[in-house]
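Suppose you are handed a protein chain with no further information: no name, no annotation, nothing but its sequence. What can you learn? This example shows the usual starting point.
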Amino acid sequence: MPELPEVQTIINGLNQKVLGKEIQKIIELRSGTLEWQIPITSLGKIESISRRGKYIILQTSLHYKLVIHLRMTGKLIFERDLDKTSSHSRAEIIFADKTKLIFDDVRTFGKIEVMKKNDDIPALKKLGAEPLSNEFDAEYLIDKLRNIKAPIKTVLLDQSVIAGLGNIYVAEILYRCKIDPRKAGKTLRTAQIKEIIKYTKVVLQEAIKHNGTTISDYRSVEDKSGEFQNFLNVYGKKTCECGAEIHKIKQAGRSTYFCNICQS
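A reasonable first move is to predict its three-dimensional structure. Written in structure tokens, the prediction is:
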């Protein structure tokens, strides 16, 4: 699933490729991909493109918005040739200048929802702090971890605590902090919590700089792979830099990678 750095990379690409373009129509190629909350004949021009957690929000000049969630395998690919498609196209946003944005999704879990500009997006109300924001600080996380018995890795994956983190980046963050992912949230010391804040921001910013991580499906708007997979320390690895074996376990149904020596 695209995580915050991948979604932000996509938004950066969209701002370059489609900001200001007029939407002529949206074509649904697979039923269930597109959700219209209201009947619309014209959407207008894309005025702004933003992100909340893993959600992409396109605001238009006629007071509508497109809310896109890529889910597991969704991709947005900019294409100048209207006749060109992708192998798993589920919808296409056609622009007045005869270019288009392809919504490609192998596993078909992704959605595009069209809403009025000022309508609430219910899913966003449940999201926690943005990890790159000033709100996400030691005081915030100390409060969230108070009395939490769950493993710290599970807590960091909880979107109601921190919006946008996923399995890859939580593994890398905890590795850099030298924190065992199995450690109960409430047992962390203040110094360790401050390290989590620090390295969450560092790792995410580095990943955005390298256009995200491509393990299998993720591609940018230009249909290019990310590069941060070349800089991973622990996720998907077999051996740590210290020479010890990387352990792989399951936590809440997700694979967890860690070094038993460095993260003791």
